[in-house]
Amino acid sequence: MRSLSIREMQLNRNIVNLVIAISLFYSFSMSSIAGDKSMIEMGSPAINKAENEGLSRIDIVLGERHGTVEHGDLVTVKYSLKEDNENGPFETITLLAGQEDTIPAIHNIVTGMKPKETKSVTLTPEEAYGPLRADRILTMPLKKVIERRVMIHLDEFRKRYGYEPQKEVRVGFVPYFTHTVANVEKGEVILYADLTDPFISDDSFGKVSVIPDKDTINIILEPKLGAPFSMGSNNGYIVSSDKESFSVDFNHPLAGKSLVLNVTVDNIKKASEFKDNEISWSEDHLKAIDNAKKKDKPLVLILSREGCPWCERLFDETMEDPRVINLDKEFVWAKMNGEKYHELMDTYEMDSYPSIVILNKNGEVIEKIAGYQSAPVLRDWLNSALNKTKQIPVSMLDGKRIVQK
pTM of this prediction? Predict the structure, then answer.
């Protein structure tokens, strides 16, 4: 038996139409439900009662098969993914059975497995990370010229930064330096970059020289071959460079390859065990920092704003996902309106919504990321940050100490 929540029923005295909203945990076709007489019989008394009482919604919950992975269970597994079938090294991941994850096909393979059971499956390139695609290799110029004086529409400014423009406020229009709001006129916001001195920034992907001219500012990259390079949500590696441009391969490193996935189930948490779990949020920045120190835990701070669709999606989807909620007790959690408390955006040097910052127990920034993140990606990112706080002594952390305002 499987646990199924029937979210909505349209009731009619002559015909009972079951309208099933597919939940996060379970997915069944209408035909399979309609053909299961025992299920209909189990639900009949509840349906009759709903009709008599004029209700339009009821819940029917069937049993779970304990000791077996079912769609919607939270499963901790050890896995290896390689080009050959040699054992190890294995990594651990907690996933949601039936929901796509960062490891291809694993969410379906675990379904039906039992604790300590092991499976070995060969994945074709299409089942793994897809074929190699030439259009995933992008070429970009080494030099970018930025105008000192930039004009953007007022609505675009609001959408980008989440607040009304005010004179003398600094904003991050491009990486490496800021622009200042010089004026607002006729629905246009005028930004001006007053950078005067050149400087060099050593980044993970190479050396960046920022050289100001009279009316422009030049950003020149000396790329490092093989270095990781990100653009939006795409991650790749620098594969070539010449005097004018460099190329980044955004194909997955294992794209185009058949892979062997070995999986061993360590633990199964049934859906009914965590269906009511949720993250404990604080909406007080300073109290959250103090609480993190008292509890000896890192702090996850999310900065968002009202009317931001990506913020809403982050909270409605990602932060409600069991893979993320499962980390609730590992962190202290805080969410703040970055539009209302804009000084926090300045303090943490973030300029877009949503923004996520992780601080250690002493209030030092150890990781930060901007933009919407899916549940599997955020889970991996949080686990990586958590490992840093456990493995690196605080005195060795190259973090920025946050001044509490």
Answer: 0.68
